[in-house]
Structure formats: C-alpha cells, structure tokens
Design brief:
2 domains, single chain, 13 helices, globular, Acyl-CoA-binding_prot_CS, six-stranded mixed beta sheet, binds ligand LGGBLMCM, Acyl-CoA-binding_protein, Acyl-CoA Binding Protein, alpha/beta, three-stranded mixed beta sheet, 2-enoyl-CoA Hydratase, Chain A, domain 1, about 50% helix, about 375 residues
C-alpha cells in the first residue's frame, strides 16, 4: 500500500473501531496489543504514562506496546490502525486451520469435545488456536468430563488434542487475572485447583489412555505418568521447561518420572527441560508405542476399539490391582508438589518468565 497516497480520515478510523467489535474470531493477544497501542497513539500521541509495576502484567504489556511506538505521528498511527483492521477483517473471515465443526459446542463444554461411542469416551482438548493450552475453564471441564466418564457405560477413556498440538500445557494467561487478595491469593487458588485436578487422574477408575497427536508441554506431559497407556504420533515431542519458567514439577512427575525412566533421565527432563522426541520418550518408558503420523489416527483407534470390547469389569479390577497400592503415595506427592509450586508462582523467576512470554520476548 502506498502510505503517502493514503490518508485515513477520522471517519475511516471510527469505522475501523466498529469493525474490530464485529470480528468473528479473537485475533489473539499480540494483535490486540498492536491495535491498542495504535489506537492510543492515534488518539493521545506518544506514551507518557508511568510504567506499571512488574506484577501488573496486563497493563505492563499494554504500556510496553504503546511505548514501543515512540514518536510515531498520530496520523500514521491512525492509518496503520485502519490498515491492520482491514487486513484482519479479511483474514479472520476466511482462515480456518481447524477441522470443520470443531468450534461447535456439541457437548455443552466450551473447551472440550467429549464423545462416547464404541465403548470409548473420548475427551478432546479443543482450543487448537491456543495449542490446547489449559485455561482455568479447561481444568474444570476436564475434571467434570473425567468424573462423568468414570460413571458412564464406556469401557475405556481417551484424552487427546484437536489440531496440531496435544497441549502446550498451562495457559500462561492464567497468571494475569489477579483476584482482590493479590498474587498470594492467586497462587493459593492455583494450588487448590491443581491438587484437585491431578487428584482426578490419580483416582480415575477405568483404563485411561493418552492419544498424543502432536507436541506436548508442561502439565500435559507430567500427567502421562498417571495414564495406563500412551500412544504417540512420531510428530509428538515431550517438553517440561519448568526451570525455564521458574517453576517446579507437578502431576506427580517428581515421583513417577524417576520410577519410569531413572532419576537421571527424569532430571534431564524435569530440571534441565530437555525436550524428547516421541521415539526417545518411548525408549524411556513414558510412551507405550509410537506410530507414523500418516497412519496414527487409523492405527490407534483400531486398536482402542478392540480394547474397548474387552470385559469392562475385568479391566477396572486389573487397573485397580496395578495402581491401588500407589494411590496414597501419589496423593501425598501431589499435595507436596502443589505446595512447592504455590511458592514458586510468587517468585521473581516465575513472574519474569510469564511476563516475557506474554510480552512475546520469549518462547520455548
Ligand atoms: C493452575 C495449574 C497450573 C499447572 C502448572 C502447569 C505448568 C505447565 O504446564 S508449564 C508449561 C507452560 N507452557 C508453556 O510455557 C508454553 C508456552 N507456549 C509457547 O512457548 C509456544 O506458544 C509454543 C512453543 C507452544 C507454540 O509456538 P508456536 O507454534 O510458534 O505458536 P504460537 O506461540 O504462536 O501459539 C499460538 C497461540 O497460542 C497461544 N499459546 C500457546 N501456548 C500457550 C500457553 N501455554 N499459554 C498461553 N497461550 C499460549 C499463543 O500465545 C498464541 O496465541 P495468539 O498470540 O493469541 O495467537
């Protein structure tokens, strides 16, 4: 576009502001920050507000974005805002990287798709545009779906992801919504939620199988130690960057991983954040079997359908005898991990890592 020839009028600017409200899809935080900064620059000029504190994550990200525009003239900011909205209006209406129908709230869940057929309850994480990051709503919905699956007439339960990721782990924006009691209350509530969430996996009574369709990060990896079988596409990777995030292991992995793969291999993953390929995770016992991505879904679901035809009570009882003597220990480990994490969430190391991700200064 020839910017010298184009000059957005005040009317164009107002139209663009109205168009933003009508966008059918959320354009994402990065674009929203860009829109915010251009709007402020166009209406108020360069940023001369005091910089918000490090714990005020959202306002700090906004301030950073606005301040980064420096002395950009108001008219240019107005033009850039109009151009950005116009590009969004066309791209967000046409783009669809997700299977058709996957946005439907077919099961009453906002963040999951839950189906039950052929003796299998399938719980599919369904935030593909966010790489299936687990927000607070998703934690609650998974607990609800697991409780329902434990009582339904299916023989086995499967957890999988929609889109290219299995899950990118905890949604880091969970850290931004600070309650009136401040960051201490936030950390306390997080620990309570995490303990209850992991507890549902420890207590799940039927065979629980992970179908790991793509990369897995953080809590979506650690929980795998509590599954009864883990089938992975050869596209999947397994990554627990807790130290990078100033955090510590959860999902009982501080106990299950050293047992599954040896203390040293567990340390490489949980302390040094080494990312494993599916083949490596299989060699270390975290993954049961790896399939080529091209035949992954077909081969795995054929196998699962055969498993689901086995007598369900026999499977439950066999799971119980394999897992029950560990349950008490696992609950104690879960409680300890949550209490340690509660402290970690209040650390500068953790706060800085989250701020860096949200302001897009870092990625894994
Ligand atoms: C209360 C219980 C707490 C339990 C404790 C749990 C701990 C953990 O799980 S620690 C692990 C936390 N996860 C991460 O640190 C991953 C952060 N994400 C990334 O590094 C990257 O997004 C990626 C490597 C997973 C994917 O990179 P890329 O392929 O380049 O895709 P984008 O970064 O553009 O992602 C698309 C879209 O999704 C958003 N997103 C992805 N992961 C997360 C996440 N974990 N939290 C929040 N948002 C996430 C990303 O921000 C993009 O959003 P838009 O910019 O709005 O499009």
């Amino acid at each position: 576009m020839n910017r010298t020839a184009m000059r957005a009028s005040q009317k164009d600017f107002e139209n663009a502001m109205n168009q933003v409200k009508l966008l059918k899809k959320d354009p994402g935080n990065e674009v929203k920050l860009k829109l915010y900064s251009l709007y402020k620059q166009a209406t108020e000029g360069p940023c001369n507000m005091p910089k918000p504190g490090v714990f005020d994550l959202i306002n700090k990200a906004k301030w950073d974005a606005w301040n980064a525009l420096g002395s950009l003239p108001k008219e240019t900011a107005r033009q850039n805002y109009v151009d950005l909205v116009s590009s969004l209006s066309s791209s967000l209406e046409s783009s669809s990287q997700v299977e058709p129908g996957t946005d439907r709230k077919s099961t009453g869940y906002e963040t999951l798709m839950v189906t039950s057929e052929d003796g299998i309850t399938k719980i599919m994480l369904n935030r593909p545009t966010k790489k299936n990051a687990l927000n607070v709503e998703m934690y609650h919905e998974i607990m609800h779906a697991l409780k329902a699956a434990s009582k339904d007439d299916s023989a086995i339960t499967v957890l999988t992801g929609n889109g290219d990721y299995y899950s990118s782990g905890n949604d880091l924006t969970n850290f931004t919504d600070i309650p009136p009691g401040g960051v201490e209350e936030k950390a306390k509530n997080g620990a309570i939620l995490l303990r209850e969430f992991v507890g549902c996996f420890i207590d799940f009574p039927k065979p629980l199988i992970a179908v790991v369709n793509g990369p897995a990060v953080g809590i979506s990896v650690t929980l795998l130690g509590l599954f009864d079988a883990v089938y992975a596409s050869d596209r999947a990777t397994f990554h627990t960057p807790f130290s990078h995030l100033g955090q510590s292991p959860e999902g009982c992995s501080s106990y299950t991983f050293p047992k599954i793969m040896s203390p040293a291999k567990a340390t490489e993953m949980l302390v040094f954040g080494k990312k494993l390929t599916a083949g490596e995770a299989c060699a270390q016992g975290l993954v049961t079997e790896v399939f080529p991505d091209s035949t992954f879904q077909k081969e795995v679901w054929t196998r699962l359908k055969a498993f689901a035809k086995l007598p369900p009570n026999a499977m439950r009882i066999s799971k119980e005898i394999i897992r029950n003597r560990e349950k008490e220990k696992l609950h104690a480990v879960n409680a300890e991990e949550c209490s340690v994490l509660q402290g970690r969430w209040l650390s500068d190391e953790c706060m800085n890592a989250v701020v860096n991700f949200l302001s897009r200064k870092s990625k894994l």
